[in-house]
Specification:
Layout (H helix, E strand, L loop, with lengths): L2 E5 L3 H12 L3 E6 L11 E2 L1 H6 L11 E10 L3 E13 L2 H15 L2 E4 L2 E6 L4 E5 L2 E5 L1 E4 L19 E9 L5 E5 L5 E8 L4 E8 L3 H14 L8 E8 L3 H5 L4 E2 L2 E3 L15 H16 L5 H32 L1 E2 L2 E2 H11 L1 H12 L7 H8 L4 H13 L7
Parallel strand pairs: 1-2, 1-10, 2-6, 4-12, 10-17
Antiparallel strand pairs: 3-5, 4-5, 7-8, 8-9, 11-14, 11-15, 12-13, 13-14, 16-17, 18-19
Helix pairs in contact: 1-3, 1-6, 6-7, 8-9
Bound molecules: flavin-adenine dinucleotide.
Length: 393
């Protein structure tokens, strides 16, 4: 293996290129925009900066937020203090930092649009807006709108979620998460350095309807739209069938981040999975013990071991979490009530926010820790309705 082309320079591609270059391979990263304000909340969980401490230990502008307020219709709000803050970046800064890290590791960075890739007897021929390049191996990191049909995940409309919102010139110190009636999704307000990211994500509803819901919320909460910048994008949000057929690797290529559908179908968190999959892909590529097809299998196995099984299980929970009902109330209403009333439930939600509580062991953890009060008996009954037993439990 001489040259590895990394197509896309978001968190997934930048991590992959850094890993390859550090191991001594020639890594060439192609991105049409490089550091840009990709539509995103920009929130990084504890899981991300615990694994990669440089994400918090650096001088790049970022906001550390320790308070979250969750709201649901007719259930009011519940406040949680986060033991581990959420770290929020503007995406231009985050991408800039990750690309600089890849370059310092020795990766070559080219600002150009990738138009086409073609499999040759040995390796790949890439056509970009500025010419032609050859590579022995490709890492596909072109995000949710990956234009290459032959590589990366193949999703249907049901496997995606719309996400849109505004960057609002305002300041605050807390995160707001608001559930909405009959929506598989939520509104977020994330404070960043110098502005707020106020957005909505939702599945199965047209973007126009989501925008109307968000604007109504902003008016009600007096979050002005004057001088605000609108953004919209889409997120992979794979259904169970999407996970089972997910095309993440093939002969001579591995897909990482959104291009491989690696996003939490409940929270929409994707940055950690993008970085981690980029890192894992680079480890597989540099490992000489694997042949080309073995690399695809080794990468799939690593993803499953680390997180893709958990995300697949989350896909089975998503509809129940947002649209389910329990004792005449919606699940989000009950969640807000339980956060207000039960320390154990607050602890659990804290860990979900930190990214340290896998979905696969959510139910068994709570059942193990219940103390036997009436309230906890109701909580246990609630769990039975919302979280089925995970495979192998
Ligand atoms: C509105 C919104 C809010 C979100 N909020 C959060 C959040 O708060 N926390 C979180 O963890 N996740 C969040 N996500 C998800 C997160 O943004 C993605 O999971 C993450 O950016 C995936 O990283 P990536 O590197 O795979 O793809 P991307 O970040 O999309 O990077 C892909 C790169 O490929 C480049 N590219 C694409 N096509 C070409 C081409 N033809 N030629 C050259 N370059 C190309 C693009 O320029 C881009 O830089 C959010 C997503 C959305 C849409």
């Amino acid at each position: 293996m001489r040259t590895v082309a990394v197509l896309g320079g978001g968190p997934a591609g930048a991590f992959a290129a850094a890993g390859l270059a550090k191991a001594g391979l020639k890594a060439v990263l192609f991105d049409e925009k490089l550091a840009w304000e990709k539509p995103c909340g920009g929130g990084l969980t504890y899981k991300a900066y615990h694994q990669y401490p440089f994400l918090i230990e650096n001088d790049w502008p970022k906001k550390l937020v320790r308070q979250t307020v969750l709201g649901a219709p007719r259930a009011g709000e519940a406040t949680m203090h986060l033991a581990h803050p959420l770290v929020i970046y503007s995406r231009k800064e985050l991408n800039g930092m990750l690309l600089e890290r890849a370059e310092q590791a020795g990766a070559a960075i080219e600002k150009t649009r990738v138009l086409q890739i073609e499999r040759r007897e040995k390796g790949w021929r890439l056509r970009t807006r500025d010419g032609v390049a050859e590579a022995d191996f490709c890492i596909i990191a072109m995000g949710a709108r990956n234009p290459l049909r032959e590589v990366g995940t193949e999703w249907s409309a049901a496997d995606t979620m719309s996400a849109l919102g505004y960057y609002v010139p305002a300041a605050r110190e807390r995160i707001d998460i608001q559930f909405l009636p009959k929506l598989e999704g939520y509104i977020w307000v994330f404070p960043r350095c110098g502005h707020l990211s106020v957005g909505i994500c939702g599945k199965g509803e047209p973007a126009q309807a989501l925008r109307a819901r968000l604007e109504a919320y902003m008016e009600e909460r007096r979050i002005g739209r004057r001088d605000a910048v609108f953004f919209s994008h889409m997120l992979p949000s794979l259904e169970l069938s999407g996970w089972r057929n997910n095309r993440v690797a093939g002969e001579g290529w591995l897909a990482v981040g959104d291009a491989a559908g690696l996003v939490d179908p409940i929270t929409g968190e994707g940055i950690y999975y993008a970085m981690r999959s980029g890192d894992l892909a680079s480890q597989v590529v540099v490992n000489d013990a694997h042949g080309l097809m073995e690399k695809a299998a080794a990468y799939r196995a690593l993803l499953a071991r680390e997180f893709s099984q958990d995300l697949e299980f989350a896909a089975a929970l998503a509809k129940r979490v947002f649209l389910g009902r329990f004792l005449h109330r919606t699940v989000p209403q009950r969640m807000v009530e339980f956060i207000r009333r039960s320390q154990r439930f607050r602890d659990l939600m804290q860990d979900l926010f930190a990214g340290t509580q896998p979905y696969l062991t959510l139910r068994s953890r709570l059942l193990r820790n219940l103390g036997g009060t009436l309230q906890e008996a109701i909580l246990s009954f609630f769990l039975d309705r919302v979280i089925p037993e995970s495979p192998g439990a």
